[in-house]
Amino acid sequence: KGDASKPADAAKPAAAQKADAKEPLKVGFVYVAPIADVGYTKQHDLGRLYAIEQVGKDKVTTTFVENVPETADAERVIRQMVNDGNKLIFGTSFGYMNYMQKLAKEYPDVKFEHATGYKTAPNMTTYNIRFYEGRYLAGMLAGGATKSNIIGYVAPFPIPEVLQGINAFTLGAKSINPNIQVKVIWTNAWYDPPKDTDSAKTLIGQGADVLTQHTNTSAVASAAESAGKMVIPYNSNMKSVAPNAQIAALVLNWGPYYAKKMQQAVDGKWDKTPVWMHYSDGALSLEGITDKVPADVVKKMEEVKAKLVKGEFHPFTGPIKDNEGKETLKSGDVMNDKDLSTMNYYVDGVIGKVPN
Ligand code: GUN
User: Fold this and answer.
1) Of 54, 173, 249, 291, whose CA is between 20 and 30 Å from 82?
2) Averaged over 346-353, what is the pLDDT?
3) 94 CB under 6 A from ligand 1?
4) Whose CA is nearest to atom 2 of ligand 1?
């Protein structure tokens, strides 16, 4: 029988113990924007820090690169991460997809994880959050708070994820207030603060009194604050930027996912199944609801949220019509993931046409 009070290695010389100890797993993060105080990249970085705490500094060591464009630069940066010994690499922006897939084929002993895309490889998976679940709830609050019945939406690129958000938000808003209209301005950038500011000002000029955004900055929240309007920021809680204007915030929480995947990689049990997380996974939270949202609307939203979390409510439940009157989902049907993933239209209530 061994002496349980002593670790088995206690008798070994220090040098041998050291050789036994595994080096921490090197993990790389590729960011499209600066981390900044709030925003999309900040949320990924909070997730990275959370994961280190959970998994342990002796088990993982991380690096990140900010401001990586969705061009061949991404390939260069990620290749450098591989050369630096990173064995697990998280690419956090949609436009890294093809570069990551190419590199995954070149470096089969490195694990690649791509946020928000749809391409994979034997050593590359995807992860994402069903943002549209939170968007529906946020839309309910916006529909309840607006006085002008015009809601402004600053959007980056017309990819299905962003259209899911616009449409779920609009459906939520219309469920409270059938008279609302959602006006969208496309910036064609994830991170362009001046464009976000200009877009927000334009929407306010068009009568919007509640704004939201899918872009990565806090500029829309800031513009709402300056103009004395309301805002439901996306990505982060932006109370620091918009203490009066923010009436709620839809916050993304990537930490538990990063912790789980780093732990799996450390344990040699990395799972390459693509995941699309739900509100109920703790990946989303609607925070900081103020009394500018009528109490009865908050109550209705809480009821819908409770159903959503139990899997009893899907934001895209028919009948759904596009904004040209065409039925896109039959009454009573629930939209399947394939139709969600190829969404390319505006629902009734959104003004204008989706850019090509
Ligand atoms: N890259 C930066 N921000 C985003 C985002 O919100 N969604 C996707 N798909 N990619 C991004």
Assistant:
1) 54
2) 98
3) yes
4) 93
